[in-house]
User: What shape does this take?
Amino acid sequence: MIRHLLRTHARTFALTLSLLPHQLRGSLGVAYLLARTSDTLADAGEIPKGRRLALLDDLAGALAKDRPSAWNPKIQRGELGAGNDELIRALPQLLAILDENPDRREVIGLWRSIVEGQNFDLTRFPSEDPLGVEELDRYCGLVAGSVGETWTTLIAKHAFQTLRHPLAEMRHLGFEYGKGLQLLNILRDRTADRAMGRSYVAEWELSAMADLSEQWLRSGEKYFQGLRPGRILMATALPFDLAMHTLGKIRQSPEEPRIRLPRSMVRWIVIRGTASLCLPRRMNPAS
Assistant: This one.
């Protein structure tokens, strides 16, 4: 069920997850789907904003009490569209899987941070005023920097021998790396977001925001240096490679409403990264 949902709702992230050892794959997969479920509700334009805020508040309360299974959003069939209805129907199973997950505490902590970011986003917009620097930093940290932190925490928990550098340093680098990926998504989707009343960045700031995204993304390069070769390194580096190619295209064609990498390029980036998987297992037992 999780594999099907990931293939449907997270093609790129599903590819990243498929590279990870199984101990990490399950926890991060269910974490993504739960966050995607609450994000789907936050973005559901067919549902009045007040009701969406109430749904997120209910979830935040359940997470604060460490009882996510108590969250039972009442959604009518068809309110979210066919594909997203599938996510909502799967929610009881996802919550049951979470309750039995050995990384339940870490996943709940991550989801709590992401929901706070989703709540901020829903409260702040619609507005034609772009986010200030502090708002942008906070938002990117809540919804994506937290992912980099949790990713690192789970590596330390299940594959500690993969880490070369101290955990605190790696968590910080992972946090910055995650922010860079989120800011890149904002820049890539800025035209569509503005059409929905979400002006995260001003168009005249595009060049500066691209530089900031790259600055945060470069923390990923330092992060990679703290990982031993193998599947975890490849899975962690793949989003960086895709992001840097996307960022280059945004800079080359700032007038394009949305940049998409050709599938041939994505395949080439994946194939190029598989070289690390040919290393002897003794060089990285966790992979």
